[in-house]
Amino acid sequence: MSKDRIYNQSMAKIADFSFDAQVADVFTDMIERSVPGYRAILTMIETLTEHYAQPGSNLYDLGCSLGGATLAMANGMNAENCTIYAVDNSSAMVERCRKIMQRSVHTCAGVHIDSADIREVEIADASVVVLNFTLQFIPQSDRFQLLEKICAGMRPGGVLILSEKVIFKDDHLDELLAGIHHDFKRAHGYSDLEISQKRSALENVLIPETIPTHRERLLSAGFSSVDVWFQCFNFMSMLAVK
Ligand SMILES: Nc1ncnc2c1ncn2[C@@H]1O[C@H](C[S@+](CC[C@H]([NH3+])C(=O)[O-])CC(=O)[O-])[C@@H](O)[C@H]1O
Ligand SMILES: O=C(O)C(=O)Cc1ccccc1
């Protein structure tokens, strides 16, 4: 696995973060060293898929990157005749994701990898939908419509797994948890320069919201039961059951 050194030299101008080839090449290392609980969440996506996948239904991994969650869904799949759709609009990610899936021969049957904008993708007959750290990159004005479309395309009893970086209304708690997240990154080998340059690159690209904002929007979008099932510092994952 290639090591993420993208922000380790001082940059005169910091461009907006994008999911290009440079990021795709180091993405697994980047997300594992940046997101507390990322591996634990993937393991639980496997368990949740075992629980929620319904025979003959579709499963979606929206914003799949290199397919970490796609593989977890494929591994957890024990229902018959299901199809997994993994979607990302970064061609660099999709190319690499296809290669990774081909290497996992036993899981590639029934997995389709599509290069598309998740706002344009049809969701139909779904039992499990995953947005693992993807909604935070969608313009805020488009988030409700996307969640409404997902809910409308789901079977009753189906589940959406929504993982996000979050902010907190309480300023003290917000600064505290953001600071602890930086400590986590430092403990995983990132320098203060890398942390601060990446923070600038993400500033207008990754827009986190509060947990109550997510909860209320999911309920308005049509989900009937919504709550957090995992949290580590300012990263969390929610379940939304239709
Ligand atoms: N409109 C869009 N349409 C499609 N894809 C998009 C869009 N906007 C952003 N993306 C894609 O969403 C992914 C977000 S990363 C997901 C990790 C993965 N889920 C994982 O479990 O490893 C999270 C992170 O980097 O923090 C990137 O691959 C983008 O190209
Ligand atoms: O690195 C960060 O600070 C993050 O918030 C997580 C992240 C992980 C991978 C790509 C973009 C953001």
From TrEMBL:
It is an enzyme of class 2 (transferase). Keywords: S-adenosyl-L-methionine, Transferase. InterPro entries: CmoA, Methyltransf_25, SAM-dependent_MTases_sf. The keyword Zinc does not apply. Residues 61-158 form the Methyltransferase domain. PANTHER family: CARBOXY-S-ADENOSYL-L-METHIONINE SYNTHASE, TRANS-ACONITATE 2-METHYLTRANSFERASE-RELATED. NCBIfam families: carboxy-S-adenosyl-L-methionine synthase CmoA, PRK15451.1. This is Carboxy-S-adenosyl-L-methionine synthase. It comes from Pontiella agarivorans.
